[in-house]
Structures are given as structure tokens and as C-alpha cells.
Amino acid sequence: MNKPISTLFMLMSVDGKISTGKTDILDVDKDFPKIKGIKEGLEQYYDIEQTTDLYSLNSGKVQAKIGANKPQKDIFKLPVSFLIIDNRPHLNEIGMDNFIRKSKRLFIITTNKSHPAFDRKNEENLEIIYYENEIDFVDLFRKLKDDFKVDHLTIQTGATLNSIFLRQKLIDKISIVVAPALIGGEETPSLIGGKSLLYAEELKYIKALKLVDVKKLNDSYLHLKYDVINETIIE
């Protein structure tokens, strides 16, 4: 498959949770800094985030949750290009303006003809990738490589999108910062969400991982790196 080399980069708890709870008012970025024993090493995650790829794939839902739609006065142009998957849409006019101002290039991927991106379609650094009914992610990744020359991509989306990318063989590498926390909750989002497997025939969707590197960070944090083995062999 002709596509960018993609890395899923996330912060999670020891039990694999990427949020502190089910509702949008709960979020690791907002909540971990409040908790003694977790907050002390949290900055290491953000330091590592600064070293990720210059193309960053996100979801509009996650960005809205962490405050992307709030007015921001002091915005500086970053060397990073953002790719936002946003169908509802979750980004409003303010969020669009914030991303246009700070992104080297901004890609909006949507099925929504009323997305506020279309009101800014003449912006020099904005690309809109529109799909009629649903996003074809295999086609999207091919377009990013062939049409936009994206060679490397960091994925920072939510549990459902992570599962789609994994099962469609679109994730090549995993880079996970593990916080010293146990969160729990059946409905709290985990690293990989989506529909549960039901049949033995679906075991092909499970991806084995090859450990590349493990680092013990300060304050009981870990940084794990894996290669994804996308060709599943069932014996």
C-alpha cells in the first residue's frame, strides 16, 4: 500500500485508558495535572510530543474537547501541518481560524458540505478533502502520499478512529507514554476502541507488535515503542 509511514502516539494509563472518564468534561490533559503522583512526570509526554512528525492527524471531536474552539489571541505559526477528521462538525468558525493561523498546512477531511472550512476554502494553507458518504481511509492515506507528498504522519485521534486505522492496516508504529495510573471504567475510552470481535474469523484484525524500545522515564512513567506487524498469521 502506498501511504505515509504512520505512528500512533498517545498518552495512556497502565490499564490502557486514554481519558479519565466517559464524558467530554473528563480528559487526561485537564485532569492528570490535578492528581498527585501523576502530575509530576506529565511534562515528559509533552516534551516527547514535540519530537513527533510534522504532519499530525487529529479528530475534530478531540480538538474541540481540549479547547480548540476557544478564542486565542497569541497564536504563532508552527512548522506542523494538521490534518483534522471532522464530520459533525466539531470545529466551529473560531476553531477553524485558530488552526489556519497556527498550521503550516491545514487539511480538513469531512463528509459534511456545511463544514465551516468551506467558508475559508480560499485560504492559501487550507486543503479540504471531501468524501460523499463516508471517509475512505485507505484512499485518504494514498492521497496524502501521492497527491500531497506526506511521507511520515503522527496519529493522535480517539479510540474509535484508532481502531479503524489499526484494522485497515494504516498504523505502522506505536509510540506510547504510559502514565502511572489506573483509571478503570467499561465505557472509558481505551487506546483501541471500536466494535468488539465476535468470531474466530475476525482474529485477523488483531495485530501483533514487535518491541523496538522501552525507556523508564522519571516519576514512574514509561515510553514504549513498537512496530506493528500488519500481516496477521493465524495458525
Task: Describe the structure in your own words.
With 235 residues, the protein is α/β, with parallel strands linked by helices. The protein is built from 6 helices and 9 strands; from the N terminus they run E-H-H-E-H-E-H-E-E-H-E-H-E-E-E. It has helices at residues 28-31, 43-49, 60-65, 93-102, 137-146, 159-167, and strands at residues 5-13, 55-59, 81-85, 106-110, 126-130, 152-156, 173-179, 208-216, 222-229. The chain has a 9-stranded mixed β-sheet with strand order 5-4-3-2-6-1-7-9-8. A hairpin with a 5-residue loop joins strand 8 and strand 9 (222-229). The longest helix has 10 residues, at 93-102. The model has no long low-confidence stretch (mean pLDDT 96).
What would you say about this model in short?
The chain is α/β, with parallel strands linked by helices. 20% of the residues lie in helices and 25% in strands. The chain contains six helices and nine strands; from the N terminus they run βααβαβαββαβαβββ.
